[in-house]
From TrEMBL:
Entries under PANTHER family matching the protein: RNA POLYMERASE SIGMA FACTOR RPO, RNA POLYMERASE SIGMA FACTOR RPOD
Record keyword NADP present: no
Gene3D superfamilies the record matches: RNA Polymerase Primary Sigma Factor
Gene Ontology biological process terms, A to Z: DNA-templated transcription initiation
Pfam families assigned to the protein according to its UniProt record, in alphabetical order: Sigma70_ner, Sigma70_r1_2, Sigma70_r2
Protein name, per record: RNA polymerase sigma-70 factor
Keywords noted in UniProt: DNA-binding, Sigma factor, Transcription, Transcription regulation
Superkingdom of origin organism: Bacteria
Region described as Disordered: 120-163
Domain RNA polymerase sigma-70: 352-365
GO molecular function: DNA binding; sigma factor activity
C-alpha cells in the first residue's frame, strides 16, 4: 500500500550517490542540496562575511611596489603638487602671504620655525640616490607627546629646510614678484610681458613644499571664490532658463564671458527680442547676482575666467597627486597588517589597529622624500608604529607595558 502511494520502501538507507541519481528526492533534500551547492560556489569564489578576511583578500590583489615603482609614484605626487603651486602663483596675494609668513620666521624678537611654513623644496632635476637601508627605532610612549609636537619632531629628525637655501630662494621669489607687479602697472595684467613675468614667478614658486595648513589656506581661497561665483551663475541660469524659458543652449552661448557685465541683459534682449518681455521682470534679480560676481572679482582681483582657470589647474594637479597617493597607500597596506599583528591583545581590536596604522601610512605618504635614498617601507614603518602605539595609549584600557619589556616578553 505504501508503494502504491509513491513512497519507496527499502531495507537499507541509500547512499548519497543513489539519492543524487534518483528522481525521488524530497523538497527538503533539494533545498539542502541547493544550500550545499551555494556554499561550495561561495567557497570557490572566496566570499566571506568576515570583514578582516574580506579586507585582506582585497588587499592581496594589489601588487607590491619595487623601488623604481615607489620613485615613479613619488615623482607623480611631486608633479601634481608643483602644478597646484604653479597655479597658486597666479592668484593675487598668494605669493605675498607666503613671503610674509617667511619674514615672520626671520623675526629677531619672536622668530618662527621654517618647518612651520614649508618642509623643503622640490627639485625635479636632482638625482635619485641608491637605496639606503636603516633600522627604524621602536616609537617611544605616545602619551607623552601630542600629535603636532610629534610630527614636528619627526620632521626635525629627518632634517628640516636649509635656512641658507630658503633665504636665497625666497629672495628670488620676492624680486620676481616685484617684477610682476611692475609689469602689471606698466602693461596691464593681460599683456604678453606680464604673462612672461608671471610664468617666471610660477616657476620659482612651484618647488616650495608648503605645510598642509598654508597649502590648504591658499587652495581654499580659490575654492571659496569659485563656489560663490558658480552659485550666482546658477541663480542667473535658473532665472533665465526656468522662469524666462530661454533655451539652455542659447543662454550658455550668450552668458559666458559676461558674468559681471551689467549691460549684458540689455544686449541679450536686443539680440533675442522674443525673450525680452519674459526677462524684464527678472532684471532686478539678474543684476543683483551679477553685482555679487563683480564683488568677488574685486576681492580676488581677477576676472571670473581667470579665477576658473586657476581652479581648473588646481583640480588637475590635486587629482594627479591624489591618484598617486592612493596607489602608494594601497600598495603598502600589507605593511600595516604585518605591523598591526604585533600589537594585538593590548586593548584594541585588530581592525582598529589596522585603521590607526592606515592613518600613519597616509601621513608617511605625505611626508616621504625618495631622494633621501630610503625605501618607503623603511620610512613608513615609523609612522605606522607611532600611530598604532598612540591609539593604544589613548583608547585602550589596559595597563601599558614599556616597549623594552614587551620585546623581552615576546622573546620568552
Amino acid at each position: 500500500m505504501i508503494n502504491d502511494m509513491g513512497i519507496s520502501v527499502v531495507e537499507v538507507a541509500p547512499d548519497e550517490d543513489t539519492l543524487m541519481m534518483s528522481d525521488h528526492s524530497t523538497d527538503e533534500s533539494a533545498a539542502e542540496e541547493a544550500v550545499a551547492a551555494l556554499a561550495a560556489v561561495e567557497s570557490d569564489v572566496g566570499r566571506t562575511t568576515d570583514p578582516v578576511r574580506m579586507y585582506m583578500r582585497e588587499m592581496g590583489t594589489v601588487e607590491l611596489l619595487t623601488r623604481e615603482g615607489e620613485i615613479e609614484i613619488a615623482k607623480r605626487i611631486e608633479e601634481g603638487t608643483r602644478e597646484v603651486m604653479s597655479a597658486l602663483a597666479y592668484l593675487p596675494g598668494a605669493v605675498e602671504s607666503i613671503l610674509d609668513a617667511y619674514d615672520h620666521t626671520q623675526d629677531e624678537e619672536a622668530p618662527g620655525r621654517l618647518s612651520d611654513l614649508f618642509s623643503g623644496f622640490i627639485d625635479p632635476d636632482e638625482g635619485t640616490p641608491g637605496v639606503a637601508e636603516a633600522e627604524v627605532p621602536e616609537p617611544e610612549p605616545a602619551s607623552e607627546l601630542d600629535d603636532e609636537d610629534e610630527d614636528a619632531e619627526a620632521e626635525e629628525t629627518v632634517g628640516g629646510p636649509d635656512p641658507e637655501e630658503a633665504k636665497a630662494r625666497f629672495e628670488q621669489i620676492r624680486q620676481q614678484n616685484e617684477a610682476v607687479q611692475a609689469a602689471i602697472e606698466t602693461h596691464g595684467r593681460s599683456a604678453k610681458e606680464t604673462k612672461a613675468q608671471q610664468a617666471r614667478l610660477a616657476e620659482l614658486f612651484s618647488p616650495i613644499k608648503l605645510v598642509p595648513k598654508h597649502f590648504e589656506r591658499l587652495v581654499n581661497q580659490v575654492r571659496i571664490s569659485v563656489e560663490q561665483v558658480r552659485a550666482q551663475e546658477k541663480a542667473i541660469m535658473q532665472l533665465c532658463v526656468k522662469k524666462a524659458r530661454v533655451p539652455r543652449k542659447t543662454f550658455i552661448k550668450a552668458f559666458p564671458g559676461n558674468e559681471s557685465r551689467q549691460d549684458w541683459l540689455d544686449d541679450f534682449q536686443k539680440a533675442s527680442p522674443r525673450y525680452a518681455d519674459r526677462l524684464e521682470p527678472l532684471r532686478g534679480d539678474i543684476t543683483r547676482a551679477q553685482r555679487k560676481i563683480a564683488f568677488e572679482e574685486a576681492v580676488v582681483q581677477l576676472p571670473v575666467t581667470e579665477i576658473k582657470e586657476i581652479n581648473r589647474r588646481l583640480s588637475i594637479g590635486e587629482a594627479k597627486a591624489r591618484r598617486a597617493k592612493k596607489e602608494m597607500v594601497e600598495a603598502n597596506l600589507r605593511l600595516v597588517i604585518s605591523i598591526a599583528k604585533k600589537y594585538t591583545n593590548r586593548g584594541l581590536q585588530f581592525l582598529d589597529l589596522i585603521q590607526e596604522g592606515n592613518i600613519g601610512l597616509m601621513k608617511a605618504v605625505d611626508k616621504f622624500e625618495y631622494r633621501r635614498g630610503y625605501k618607503f617601507s623603511t620610512y613608513a614603518t615609523w609612522w605606522i608604529r607611532q600611530a598604532i602605539t598612540r591609539s593604544i595609549a589613548d583608547q585602550a584600557r589596559t595597563i601599558r607595558i614599556p616597549v623594552h619589556m614587551i620585546e623581552t616578553i615576546n622573546k620568552l
